[in-house]
Amino acid sequence: MTRRRAGAALAIVALAAGFAWWLRGEEPRSDDAAHPGTASVRWPKGLVRSYRFTVAGKSQVPMPESDGAWTGDVQASGELELRGYGEKDGRTQLGLRLTKLGTATMTLLGAPALRDRAQVEAALVGPEAVVTLLPTGDVHSVAAPKDASAVFASLVQTLMGEVQWPLRPAPSWTLLEVTPRGRCETAFTRAGTELAKQRLRYATLTGFGLGVGSVRVAARAKLTLNDDGQLIAATTSERLDGATADGRPAFNELAVTLEPLGTGTFEGLPPSVAEAVALDAMKPPIDADEQLLMQRVAGLTEAQLFDGVATYGASGFIPDVGLFVARASGLLKQRPELCEKLAERAATTAASQKERDFALELLAAAGSTEAQAAMRTILSSEVVKGDPQRRDRFLRLSLLKEPTPATVAFVSSERDAATGQDRNTLSLVLGSTAGELARTSPEAAQPFLTQLTHELQSARDVTERRHLLHALGNAGQASAVDDVLRWASDPDPKVRYAAVDALRFTPTPAARAAVTQAVADADVRVATHAIELLGHWQPDAAERAAIITAFRAGRLPWRTAHGVVTALAPYADDAQVRAFFEWVLTQPAADPSVHRRIASVLPGGVTQ
Amino acid sequence: MRQLWVLLVGLMALGATCGPPDIPIVEDPAACPPPTGAQCANPKTPCDRYFVDQAKSDLGAACNLLYDQSVRSEASQYPTQPALTAKTFGPKGWNEPDASIKDVRQFPENTRAPDGGTVKYVIDGPNAFQLDGELEKYSTPSFGGAPTYNPALLLLKRKPWEDNGEAVASCREYVHEKFYDYRSFVDRVIAARAAREPRRVVDIAYAPGPSAPRWAIGTRHIVDGTLYQRDGVTPSGLVVPFEDPMPKNDYFRVPLSAGDSKVIFEANPTGEDQVIVDNLGLVPPTIRMKHLSRELKLEGLVFQDATLTPVIADGGTFYQESFAWHGGMNLRNQGILDEQLYLYDQRKAEFLKLLALRQDIASAIAASVSRKTDMPKAVGNEFAGAWFRDPFWNPDPTAAQFSATQGFDVTSGLNQHPGSSLNAPIVAFASYQNPLVQDPSKLVKQSQTPAQVASIIPKVEQACATATSHLDGGVPSINQLICLAYRLEAIDKQIEDELKKARTDGCLSLSTSGPAPCDWSPALFSSRLLGLFAAEQEEALNRCLEAVDSFTQLENRAFVYTNSKDAGVNYPAQSYTQSPSRAELYFQRLDEYLNVLGEDVGPLLSRKPDGMGRHPLRLSRTEGDSFRKGNDWFGAKLSYSAGFALEEVDNADECVLETRANGSFRVDARAIGAEIPVLEASLEADTQRIESNLDIKVLGKSWTIDEPIGKPAYQDSELTTHTFVEGHAYIQIGFITIKVGGAISGFAGYLFQLGSQRQLTPAMPNANPPVPCKAARIGVGASIQPVMGLQGSAYAAVEALVARAGVKGYLTIISVGVPFQGNLSIGPDPATQVIDARFELGAELKLEFLSGRIAVFLEIGVCPVCEDIEATIVRWGGTPKRFKLFDYGLSVTLGDLKRIAGQEGVLDP
Asked: Which of A85, A121, B241, B770 is the most buried (most CB within 10 A)?
């Protein structure tokens, strides 16, 4: 390697590293003139390093609207190995496995929680996870064996999250570190073989449940590396302190130590693992969804399901219908074969209309592939074909959160065969289902969305045009915004209303501009809807100004005042909004409650 | 008798000679072309005669209609014709009548007043021009100048009022019967064309007989002077302004001096005419007159013939005027020709003119010498040291003031006299110093010629100047006050001379028996009784017109209402048309009702500019609010608004009335960090476009946007159950992760009904008479009831190595129902044909937010040897709300709405 060639290689490495920083949103420091050590990790294939580890964690997360809190602590120690499997796709693969479990204790809600040490040991000792490192040592992902327990996977994430040692060719640097508790701005300082890191502030936070906002970080970590960038030892500690909105404290402590035990070599291939995930990906129990589903079903039996459907079908009422829907739809997820069985009855004349609707709704709530097939069965039945309100039955398909391509195609087919109001209603359903499908399978949904867009341009009358606009609104695809905007200035206020409404899920800049313009629409209903929409979109200063201007100029009648207050109330601290509210208070009100509402939201009361 | 026979034979012969009458009987009246006014006035053809004969008994006959048109046209040309005062509805509500809009004849029906408002009262019948002007009207109408109309038809018009007894069926009948004693008398005078024949007026009033008719106002009230309503029992409240005491006759109205005068008139034969005014007011102003020949006092006469004084004094309070007195005087003077009596009346009238002139001069003198207060600061500087020059504070400011009102700068010449010796405030050479008098041309506005200016100088000044110049041998008078004083002296002398003549004629006799031709004549009675009570009658008429939209309405009207402040009226349905008193009871109860109703309805009324310079009255109400409850784990957000409006309430064109109802509702639910709009519903129905707008979304997806275009009614309902929201979150303890999931399930739906109608009878502007647009019924009915019951449940999943977790309990996230019902319609009540607005408006929010408890339980250890731990993760106390947004159920006439709007403080608190 000539000097020149070496310089070029260095430049390429530096560029690659810079590109990697850029991709990760890092902020490289400028004081990297010195080159204190290698900025990459080399972990030869077959090299294994053994460590003694300890993990200690303690948490308190307040429960919402109660005095209780999720509290617990966990401690574990033992020995582990990091095994080099060489590079794959330019990334270093390390195996991590526990070779020995020392202590393992846990309390949850103040009680010892680990059921059986032998089971715990069996779960933790033996399985091997694969940790993928970038050349710089950043942990790209971790992957546990498919049959490994979530506890093992979570432990691996925790260990690697705390001891990760991303290197940069500088004495110090700052980057956004991905940790099991979120993404944190972390400062690194390297001096020889010593790497110190200090977590400064979390940009995102996980594992704190909900309702805990920002946290204070008290963390310190010291790692020892060798010349190849391999981890020799680590001592880390971190405490996060936060609070809920009502002031109740929350904290999370975690401390990890790694002490070197030795090195060796081995031969072997990486273990078979499940899908790799980032360090901040939560690792709930593998059977978490099953657990949740089981709790949701809460012991509802097949017989109780059918009894409940029949009861509701006969009377339109069952106690705690909300819980029943949750349990019954859970059961239909749990036992997909029941979907078809439910459809068989609902598709006959033996079922009342209410029962049929209820069956469709339960199936929609279940939402599974089988449930959707059962819905199609019901909707294709002769009894529904003879229903004059058949289109209303189809509306239940709009409830699907994840419609399958088959379901969307079914709607499209039925729509093609329908005329008049039936077709218009099915346009709405097609928009809803195709839009949801587009979230998971854009290609599959595109033909249907394109069809709606094309039909909009060639709609024969206002009613059809409005329904197609609302259908595109149901779909909520940003790609349709331009097609919708063409109708935002239509002479017919109903078309303008539909166009504004169709933008509700797609607040693109162009859509926001059109809706802002609609605030001053000559038709009160269009203007009112535009105000509501901006309110839901969280209006910026210019949009708020448009609302205020239109109202003060008298272009908005008083009956829009409630919509205006609802849209602007969250911004009562803003001087412009405050001044506007105070002006409204000086106006005679057709509705005194508007004044009351304004007075209640103005911070610090009304200034004179 | 022989002569009679000769006449009869002669007439027969004439008939035989001349053949049949010139005007044959019309065989086919239908073939007659419509008559003209001239033909009705002077019938010549058989058809003309047919129409005239028809008019004698048929108020709707062509000639009568033409007559009415003529009256309307003619009456409109009377510049001083009294007329109904019209209140107008302007931007600020009801305006009191003013000079520019007082006469409703200025405005055709249903047109607007000058301020853009609508004339409230319009001519509603041939007798509706005026009440106090009917005498004039019925004595002067003509077709082309020749009186042709038979005023006796008035009684024909009154016949329905007479036939229905005390009942009242219109505001005019109400006024007629409320003031029945007087009105029937006046009607009789009109019908007899007697208004200008005082003797006949007296004869009508004092018709003889043991049971004199009601119109015999004199005869019937000789004993009891009270004027009654139609029932003859209830006083009408009218009091004829009889004098009591009353001078013996007008000669005795001469003022006599009493005590010291406020102005001293001194003879100053050796000096000059002079006015001395003590600016401090300590000494009475003194006018020294070089040529004074008799004693003068400002307040009254000092007779040179001292014998007149006690006579005048004794006759000053001689009679007690009453119907009995007039009747008695009629008898006392029955032996004297009326023409003789009228001669005395004429002389007395002339005498009264003298007295009036004296009063004017005395008042002018008094005003001129009255002590002035300090000058206003605004003019103080300009006139400092020359206060008498100020046009307002000059002792004789008449000319200057008058000129000022004509636009002249009366101060322009003042600077021509700087340092004048006239600054002394003791002696004011008032008008003499007035530059206007000195040289009016100096003050001429450029647009006026000197001749015009001269013409506006009061003639009295010219005359006075001429007179005084004679006295002084051609030297102009030095002061206008001097001039006035000399005029006072002259008039006093003339009055005394007239009294001496009256004494010669016996008019100063104090006899109490025998003829008294100077004391009474039929004209005195006629002038006393005719033309009275215009204000009272118009006030009563306006009161009635303000309160009544249709008398049909009074036949069975209930006033039953309890307002939101628990104030109420409770007058069951009953008739108020039996008598004027009953009608007045109606007015009274209506006031009570409106006051109570106004508490609720008044706040709903507003007046907003419509961008076209109008401020139409609107009855509207909107209600709205938003609630947010919960946290990131479970929560819900609700916003709603609901309202209704009745637009153009005070528009005379009832076809522009518009009703509207609207409501919107939105609930967002949140479970474990996931939030979604569960249900959105908005509904608007109005009658302007006869359509409704509907937008219902479930989970943010439009479900229904249909509107019943062209359909009279539309209804639909949907109720869907679903698991609307699902979410999850993680709790991390060390390296143990707990997954918490949650879902919100339940039902959400709506029921709505819509209906609108707009039934109009279109206007026919080219019809004769033009037919305005009429609303049969304009209305909108809308009800929407969003219903929702959402329950939240949570689940927890923990690594099986750790524990088995489960969840107990559930939450009621939100339970809400907003039954909003609005039915508004406007149209004529089938029974009364009065336009009313019917409201059935109700909205009640039934809301329960977040109640219940969810607890997580852990089974730690291997059961049955395990430990159960339970911890509450969510517990809400619930915030049930149930309150009425609004609740109105009433039927209000548009008239009542306008009346409430006109109440003080309703629209402009």
From this structure: A85
